[in-house]
Amino acid sequence: MAMKPELRFLLNDQEIRLTEVGASDTLLDHLRIARRLTGTKEGCAEGDCGACTVLLGKLTEDGLVYEPINACIRFLASCHACHVVTVEHLRGPDGGLHPIQKAMVEHHGSQCGFCTPGIVMSLYGLWMSDPQAGVTQIEEALQGNLCRCTGYEPIVKAALAAGQQGGQAMDALAVERDAVAARLHAMREGRVELSKGCERAIIPADVDDFAAVLEENPDATIVAGATDVGLWVTKFLRDISPAVFIGHLMKGIAVKGDELRLGAGVTYSEAAPLIAKHIPAAHDYWLRIGGWQVRNMGTIGANIANGSPIGDTPPLLIALGARIVLRKGAARREVALEDFFIDYGKQDRASGEFVEEVIIPTRPEAKLAAYKISKRRDSDITAVAAGFCLSVENGIITQAKVAFGGMAAIPKRAAQAEAALTGQPFAADSFDAAARAVARDFQPLTDWRASAEYRQAIAANLFRRFWLEQSEPDLPVRLQYAVGE
């Protein structure tokens, strides 16, 4: 396959061509240092505060889509054939302030101003994609933006006011969309291989090319959304070269009977509408995976392949009975997700093998729930996560699958607690028994997120919470994001 030694992307209204790009070069550094676009700020360098938010336009089956992303952990090489839009590019139809900027001024949505460009870019992404967004959608869009001094009420008021002003059809990104899409299409052909010093970055042309690249470079760092790998570089200064960037690959989405088949490269945001429709009990849980920027970058396949004991998706997916397709070269094999995790840092994945597809049973007949416990409700790392999936017939629990994250070295089912439920009446006493039994399933660690004792108490109480929610569905035992509001 022909290889090109040039990275190409659009930055605002300019085409960028680069031949010297390192595997660890970040988009934020390129914007601020090489391009002097200093409206994009560095706050946390870990995708948490949102001060570095820019819009990324990417080609999809539905056309050109713009999404807010974190430039601090977005690698420059992953921007190939994309449109990067910074706050400097915003303008109104008359060349003055954009409606979002104007509303922020009028409603006093800024004080020190450090976080303001990132907030404006998140609201810009929402303003374009959901012109009539209400408070729920605005708060969801701002999950990944922290403001230490203004308070969010005037920012929400500004977002509502900007939506009421309209003007989306006249916005520059809307007017220029077809022309931008055509320019991006012209950049996509062939594999791209880049180097800078001793660092190498590889962007495969397609999935078959990725399989070939990985066979040639079995020890390469695979980078999908970079929501974790980005921190390897910004926080731990790790060498990730050679790095293979695959965020543009494995985007297939299909619904076959009672199963969702998702390519490993499908992001949390791309999967969200299907989760809301086919697994509605997990909708609010899904919207607590990072902030909006993280969900626009992070992929389901990478969250699994990473093997973290606190990954957000595995407990839910294990409880549902999910399977994954692993590929090496042209060979594929299917593995139950719960069997993929062997020990801390060890998965059932051979050298040169990668997760290609995730198969998720929707279980419409089952009683389902997913829980995430963290210090902060939004955009925070999990202390304990749990997925519940129970089958009940004639008042008897015929099958129970309950999986936890944060309780062991791997995402793991609670075998003792499941046994305490199976064959028992669907009643409070059965869940009290399971709550006691779960203490025999795990010996969690104490770390800065939670103590072992707290984790044990949480795991037990989640059984009681599940019972309360399922037995009295109208009981307001937790806050939820409303579907479609």
From TrEMBL:
Domain FAD-binding PCMH-type: 194-365
Segments forming domain 2Fe-2S ferredoxin-type: 5-90
CDD domains named in the record: fer2
One annotated GO molecular function: xanthine dehydrogenase activity
Entry EC number(s): 1.17.1.4
SMART domains with a match to the protein in the record: CO_deh_flav_C (SM01092)
Keyword Isomerase in annotation: no
InterPro entries with a match to the protein in the record: 2Fe-2S-bd, 2Fe-2S-bd_dom_sf, 2Fe-2S_ferredoxin-like_sf, 2Fe-2S_ferredoxin-type, 2Fe2S_fd_BS, Ald_Oxase/xanthine_DH-like, Beta-grasp_dom_sf, CO_DH_flav_C
UniProt keyword annotations, A-Z: FAD, Flavoprotein, Iron, Metal-binding, Oxidoreductase
Keyword Oxidoreductase belongs to the record: yes
Protein name, as recorded: Xanthine dehydrogenase small subunit
Protein source organism: Paracoccus alkanivorans
